[in-house]
Write a structure and sequence with these properties.
By secondary structure, this protein is mainly beta. It has one helix and nine strands.
Length: about 100
């Protein structure tokens, strides 16, 4: 299985969350928060459709989760409480063209 985290080669560390419970290992941990960009060619209104992809890594079990772009932007701007236990989402499986 492959999971799409974005398509940029630059991954930036955004810090650590407050203590959250990992949905996979059920441990209370401080997730590492990272971001990169997903760019797509959009023939409609703009040439490129860009969005920031935020993902969190559990330091105990190495599970990877994602959050909405708005939550990640708030976290990046210093709002540590913007990411909570109920904001963690599983990454969607990526099905590449074969």
């Amino acid at each position: 299985m492959e999971y799409r985290i974005g398509n940029s080669l630059r991954v930036k560390s955004r810090g650590e969350t407050l203590s959250l419970t990992c949905p996979n290992c059920n441990e209370k941990v401080q997730f590492g928060v990272f971001s990169n960009y997903e760019r797509r060619l959009a023939p409609k209104l703009t040439l490129f459709d860009c969005k920031t992809v935020y993902f969190l890594v559990c330091p105990k079990c190495a599970s990877i989760f994602t959050v909405d772009e708005k939550k990640g932007d708030s976290f990046k701007n210093g709002e540590k409480l913007s990411i909570g236990n109920f904001d963690l989402k599983s990454l969607k499986e990526f099905k590449g063209k074969i």
